[in-house]
Amino acid sequence: HELGICAKTCIAPAERIKMSFQVTSERFTMKKAFARFVNLVKTEGILSLWKGHSTSIIRTAPYAGFSYAFHDYAEEAFKTMLAVEQLPFFY
């Protein structure tokens, strides 16, 4: 799940700009998105691009942990149920 957190951290600035368009009726263009990016950095600073990011990580980390744990549990249960050491490739 570390890679997921890393990926979310890398795309957080783009997500922040995208969400700023979603809460307005203004039509998205790359030119307007870049202008918002520059304006946000000028008015609120570079770290403002990650505003709200910690909430996203706090939400993602437990989900990823439960997903991996359940996957491992389910895989072992299916191996036991099918009496095999390795599940077929399509699983």
Give an overview of the whole structure:
The protein has three helices and no strands. It has helices at 2-22, 30-44, 53-82. Helix 1 (2-22) packs across helix 3.
Topology, element by element:
Layout: H1 2-22, H2 30-44, H3 53-82
Q: Give the helix tally.
A: 3
Beta percentage is under 5%
Fraction of residues in helices? over 70%
Mean pLDDT, to the nearest integer, reads 89
Listing every helix as H and every strand as E from the N terminus to the C terminus, the arrangement reads HHH
Which segments are poorly predicted (pLDDT under 50) over 5 or more consecutive residues? none
Shape: elongated
Radius of gyration (Å): 20 Å
Structural class: mainly alpha
Secondary structure: number of strands: 0
Task: Give a short overview.
The protein is mostly helical.
Provide key terms for this protein.
3 helices, 91 residues, mainly alpha, single chain, 0% strand
